[in-house]
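Next up, a specimen:

>
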Amino acid sequence: MENCWFVLKQTHYPAPDVDSMRKGKPTGPISLGHVIRDLKHLDQVINAEYVEPFTRAMQIHQTKMQNFQWNHTEEGERALEASVGVPVPPAPGLTVNASIGFAFRKSVKNYWEFEHLDRYIVQPTQPYLNECLESEEVSKYVERSQKFGFWSFFMITGLIIARGGGKNTAAEAQAHEVSAGVNL
């Protein structure tokens, strides 16, 4: 079993209630114990109607981080260059080379700041995972997927909920560059 964390692109999901997660009756669209098909379709929960209640051995561990700041920069560059050489007929062995190039650069900087992050983590036991596999929704998903010879899914075992703040700035910078040259 592997763990991976990712940031949701959607910020409109309401946070689930912790007590409802413990009882197997999640109130949020994404909750601990939910099973999803893949990381590209987070809102397509396989067991949205019912989550197996957590056993005594599966406590929800809660932590809090105060005054959290995070920034992310994406940079991209595209370039195109072409050159051509043409022999000069009156002067054998002499060639005129011409070149032209274009370059485009773009960077996007996003900055988030939150008053605090609430972190909820649960560690599923093997008997719990077996019960989840036997549940009606998950077993039907596995049965349908086996027709294609391959199946996988992910279980939400940790959530970090950001509170009080949000995206502060988004700066975008672009640069264009053109180059040309001729030489003999």
Notes: Strands lie at 35-36, 61-87, 95-121, 154-155, 158-183.
